[in-house]
Known about the structure:
This protein is an alpha+beta fold.
Amino acid sequence: MDIRKLADSLNPVERKVVKVLDNFSSFHDIIKVTGLKDVEVMRAFQWLQNKNIIKIREEQKELANIDENGLKYLKYGLPERRFLEALEKPVSISELAKKTGLSNEELAVSLGVLKSKAAIEIEKGKEIVVSITENGRNLLRKGFIEEQFMKEEFPKELALLNDEERFILENLKRRKKIVKIEKVRVVYSELTGTGKKLVNEEIDEHLIEKVTPSLIKTSAWKNKKFRRFDVKINVPSIFAGRKQHYRGFLDEVRQKFIALGFKEMTGPIVETDFWNMDALFMPQFHSARDIHQGYYIKEPKYAKDLPENIVKNVNASHETGFGTGSKGWRYDFDVKRTHRHILRTHDTSISSRTLASKELKIPGKYFQISRCFRYDVIDATHLPDFNQVGGFVIEEGINFGHLKALLRLFAEEFAETDEIRIKPSYFPFTEPSAELQAKHPEFGWIELAGSGIFRPELVKPLVGKEVPVIAWGVGLDRLAMFKLGIKDIRQLFSHDLEFLRNVKVI
């Protein structure tokens, strides 16, 4: 390597750092001698390492530093010094407090310290009277070793302290906020073979960094040297801030639905059995209502704000079919139970609310992105809380063929896969029902969505009339695994920086 060319390629910050590398290696020492900011020195270290001039190494060290009381005592003297200085004659403790301005805690500490040094004598009577000894006068003349220690340069590395310094430090540590011990990361530079040659090379301080109009106009550039720029050199990767990968995917899904003319629905996370299950024509004896499938709210246990007319219609639908030609489920509907609070177990609860609302438009296309909660064992494809995108299309004449086409569109658009299959399935609130499956390269065929045509027993009590409604609920977490190339569903919420830097972002 041409050392001269290398020297001429250094930027101003690198040149300042290189000049002192032969005598200093510590990051903090280089900051002191160069006057550069810590961020400038760290960047210089990285650049110089990339050019094979230095190697960077790190060490964990314990450092002693002056704490807030220590800073005060450096300015005004230790409490024991002020204590002794006030003993021109024997003085009571109460008088000492007035003369010195020391707190009760500082007085107590001073008494203990000075007594251990035989610097004072204590007479006990009605009042405690303190007098200075010859040792105390000598101590005032010579000075306190603790003060001398504190006046030295800090921070101090514990591993480099001698026995006397360790003894003093241990005594100061027992006292309130005089010194503090910190574990810090210390960065060092180590010159490579190339670096050792470079520090002996003359570094030109007046290289031209950029061409300016005035430089050209005055022709000042003619007798000066330009800094060299190596366009082939590898530079450190810089990772800029960016949107979290799963957040980006959810935003994309939302925008695609809006672009397709769908209107977004919203609903509460804390739902009731009514909107979550009963309004969907799910019987109260259905196995999905088992406590192990959903998280019920302990307090408040029941809601008070359900629409009475809709509850009445749904009650009739469950018991007799509500004039739809169905006989319903033929059981006694429990009105109290329908008020019970539960964490939303699926996004279709939002659909039921929308179908019963005055804002419903026919024809209409609706979607929602919602967080749902169900008891589940955590593994590579399951979590107890998950995102769904669901919705429905309500329109006279719509049929199962439209639903199949819509499911294929979802798989192609959102999962970017054409390996799909639609299988018959069962849901209490749809007939016919279908399941959308897609083939994952790691896990094989996995479920993406449940779908079907809402039963009349669901639609009529909420809408007020029978009208076809095709509906679906897609597991967004699994959909994202396809889109982002993720093999473990838990990586959607990972805080691993290395993973976040390299994962695909929509």
